[in-house]
Specification:
Helix content of chain B: over 70%
Oligomer: heterodimer
CATH class of chain A: Alpha Beta
Largest interface: A-B, 35 and 24 residues
Largest sheet of chain B: 2 strands, antiparallel
Number of strands of chain A: 10
Shape of chain A: globular
Number of strands of chain B: 2
Number of helices of chain A: 9
Strand content of chain A: 15-25%
Distance between the termini of chain B: 50 Å
CATH architecture of chain B: Orthogonal Bundle
CATH topology of chain B: ABC transporter involved in vitamin B12 uptake, BtuC
Strand order of the largest sheet of chain A: 6-7-8-3-9-10
Strand content of chain B: under 5%
Number of domains of chain B: 1
Distance between the termini of chain A: 38 Å
Order of helices and strands of chain A: EEEHEEHEHHHEHEHEEHH
Chain lengths: 260, 305
């Protein structure tokens, strides 16, 4: 079966030719099928976020190619590939237009990939649909449809952003430490929603996390990145038998935060 | 207090400056971008409208052309900003500078075009409406049409994305839309309105002058902020109406100040002071709202943060 996401020999260098030259991604290849949920771990500076940003088109790749569902998207501008990609950032402020209402934000996300002209921005049918779907999130957002997003808490906002990322049914969901700024209870809630969305739709998911327990608990595959390369790739039985302690032992990860 | 005639004059001018304020609202508030093109595009609108009226073209058509000419100026700023990556404020300054020469060429290299003997929309209104109020009625009709169209536009799919651009461009890109194209659209629309206001102004005062653009952006800004502070910002429609009413209020304040003996040469200083004061008041207003919110839901706020 054709893989949904194919990354071949990706390379990304920042500040090429200067004394600050840094190779963020070196010769990285990765393939994911529809339905895959990959968790990505690694120290700061390992290239995790750069990888996601290259896939999303924030940074152009220096070498290599990225194929999504057979389409070569390596040179496609960010806003065009966004039609196939849903994204959630670490900062809860980054995913929503804070001065607009919840339903307006949802309408913007839901119109992704559709023609955007002078049609009404939001219809009565949209509102009804959004309301029902929001109710299923269990974040008490359905009664705040006409409230401005800036009045929401971080957890509510991140749940909303996640919902906005999947509402247009993307092929790929990119999550960059999307629960790092949340308190433990809110983080767990958002993560369980993430799992629900990731398995519920036909797409594949990449999630960066600094929490090793989460990285093994969620998803069906885990990669560890170091210095711009994938140094460990766990799947199936190997992954089931892996524990946080063994991970730490194996790679002497010197980041206390990752143990939590 | 000033005379009724002076008040009517202020209201009449206010309806014109309200269109300018709506243009500034689009760039400054919706796109979150201080756009100095305004000082140039308003004269472009004046020049185009005046030249066309002077040559006998229908004055209403000349207003449409003033809108188009203003849009073109905004588009140039937008291209400098989004394609050549020049800072927004500098891009606006460059176009403002360049437009001086362009405006002079449009005006046939004379710095002033009188319209005393030409047909204007205001003279047309005088003939069918009571002359004392005709200017205000005409202004209100045009203004209401502008607000209605703008409001409807901002409720469309593309209007939603446009509003989100100033809030969060990352989110707009993530939603599959080029934020840069939205900025182009916004600057064109914003300066189009400014051009329209310029055209109305030229026909109202029955002349176009090359140097009348100085400080127009600040006046627009003063109106927007004054409107926000006095009339509120709770809904989108209210924000549009607030900006428009802010312009009217601004004209009334200015004419009252002139009536009280302020030198008209001090006008620009007063405008700048009003903007500085209003910006500070707006800040105070935000802080006040925050404190009020905290007091109102102390327990809730703690659990939310």
């Amino acid at each position: 079966m054709e893989k949904l996401l194919q990354i071949h020999n990706l390379k990304k260098v920042f500040g090429a030719g200067t004394i600050n030259e840094k190779t963020a991604i070196r010769d990285l290849s990765l393939e994911l099928s529809a339905g895959d949920f990959l968790t990505v771990i690694g120290n700061n500076g390992a290239g995790k976020s750069t990888l996601l940003n290259c896939i999303a088109g924030v940074f152009p790749a220096d070498e290599g190619e990225i194929l999504l569902d057979g389409r070569n998207i390596t040179k496609m501008p960010e806003y065009k590939r966004a039609a196939y990609i849903g994204r959630v950032f670490q900062d809860p402020l980054k995913g929503t237009a804070f001065d607009m209402t919840i339903e307006e934000n949802l309408a913007i996300a839901a119109a992704k990939g559709k023609c955007r002209g002078l049609q009404p921005g939001i219809t009565r049918a949209d509102k009804k649909e959004f309301r029902e779907k929001l109710a299923s999130l269990g974040m008490e957002l359905e009664d705040k449809m006409t409230q401005k997003v800036k009045l929401l808490s971080g957890g509510q906002r991140q749940a909303l952003t996640l919902f906005m990322a999947v509402i247009a049914e993307p092929e790929l969901l990119l999550l960059d430490e999307h629960t790092a700024a949340l308190d433990p209870a809110a983080a767990e809630k958002v993560l369980s929603l993430t799992e629900e969305f990731a398995y519920g739709k036909k797409m594949c998911t990449l999630m960066i996390t600094h929490n090793m327990k989460d990285s093994l608990h969620y998803g069906n595959r885990t990669i560890l990145m170091q210095d711009g390369k994938i140094v460990m790739d766990l799947e199936g039985e190997d992954r089931k038998n892996m524990t946080v302690e063994k991970l730490v032992e194996k790679f002497s990860i010197d980041n206390d935060r990752m143990l939590l | 207090m000033m005379t009724l005639t002076a008040l009517l004059g202020a209201l009449e001018l206010g309806t014109i400056y309200a269109i300018l304020a709506l243009g500034v609202f689009l760039s400054f508030r919706t796109l979150n971008m201080p756009d100095l093109t305004v000082d140039g595009s308003i004269v472009t609108g004046m020049a185009v409208s005046a030249v066309m009226c002077a040559t006998g073209v229908n004055p209403f058509i000349s207003l449409l052309c003033a809108f188009a000419a203003g849009s073109a100026a905004g588009l140039v700023t937008g291209i400098l900003h989004t394609r050549l990556k020049i800072q927004a404020i500098l891009a606006g300054i460059l176009v403002m500078l360049a437009s001086y020469s362009v405006n002079l060429r449009i005006m046939g290299k004379t710095p002033n075009i009188p319209l005393t003997k030409s047909e204007t929309v205001y003279k047309m209104a005088d003939r069918i409406l009571p002359p004392k109020y005709s200017g205000i009625i005409l202004g209100v009709i045009v203004l209401a049409a502008v607000i209605a169209v703008l409001y409807l536009f901002l409720q469309t799919r593309i209007g939603f994305v446009f509003r989100a651009t100033g809030d969060n461009e990352d989110m707009v890109r993530a939603a599959g839309v080029s934020g840069e194209n939205m900025k182009l659209l916004g600057l064109a629309l914003s300066n189009g309105l400014v051009g329209l206001a310029g055209g109305m102004l030229a026909q109202n005062q029955a002349f176009a002058d090359i140097s009348s653009g100085t400080g127009m952006m600040v006046i627009g800004l003063a109106s927007v902020i004054l409107g926000e502070v006095v009339f509120g910002t709770s809904t989108l429609l209210r924000r549009l109406i607030s900006a428009a009413l802010g312009a009217v209020l601004y004209r009334i304040i200015i004419s009252q100040a002139l009536y009280l003996g302020m030198e008209s040469s001090d006008l620009k200083l007063v405008s700048a002071v009003i903007v500085a004061a209003a910006l500070y008041l707006g800040l105070l207003g935000e802080r006040g709202a925050k404190i009020r919110r905290k007091r109102g839901q102390n327990g809730k706020a703690a659990s939310n943060t």
